[in-house]
Specification:
about 170 residues; TIM Barrel; single chain; 4-stranded parallel beta sheet; alpha/beta; about 35% helix; 5 helices
């Protein structure tokens, strides 16, 4: 397995960036495949178009963009790893910001939101013939997901949130 996260590719292409290999312009995904990569990782945020999101006003790495990129990845004959951030913004060991739409949910409703979001994404990918080959339920979860409920200081809450996401992946 040799892969790369190319979630930023649509942003670069929107800015007019072109890619070439030995002076020949080609699709970036095809260049990666031509050089031995067989996996592409795509990250998905809940609502990245929010003012405080990953891609304010543009929505890169939202469901719509992820569906388009998944089609390109699979059309190139590559495998897909989908990475759920469960946030409107970057989720990493130093921050696991809860999506704005989930801020005031009870814990039970938060688990349902994780399940429903994950299930919806997975079913839409499956419906277009681009089911991921691997799924990350959470991104860089060293210190948990969806803080504060899923922080590692609350292992029971963390386990329940991860189980909600995993259950949705399994049924899809």
């Amino acid at each position: 397995m040799l892969g790369a996260d190319i979630s930023f590719l649509p942003e670069l292409e929107t800015r007019g960036m072109k890619f070439s290999d030995n002076g020949v312009e080609k699709d970036a995904i095809q260049i990666l495949k031509d050089h031995g990569l067989n996996y592409v990782r795509l990250r998905i945020f809940n609502d990245p178009a929010r003012d405080s999101g990953y891609s304010p006003g543009k929505g890169f790495c939202d469901l719509s963009n992820t569906l388009k990129m998944a089609k390109r990845v699979k059309a190139a004959g590559m495998k897909l790893l989908l990475d759920f951030h469960y946030s409107d913004y970057w989720a990493d060991p130093g921050k696991q910001y809860k999506p704005a739409a989930w801020k005031n949910l009870s814990f039970d409703d938060l688990k349902k939101a994780v399940y429903n979001f994950t299930k919806d994404v997975m079913l839409q990918l499956k419906a277009q013939g681009t089911t991921p080959d691997m799924v990350q339920v959470g991104n860089e979860i060293n210190h948990g997901i969806i803080w504060p409920e899923g922080n590692v200081s609350n292992f029971d809450g963390l386990a329940q949130l991860i189980n909600a996401g995993t259950a949705a992946v399994k049924i899809s």
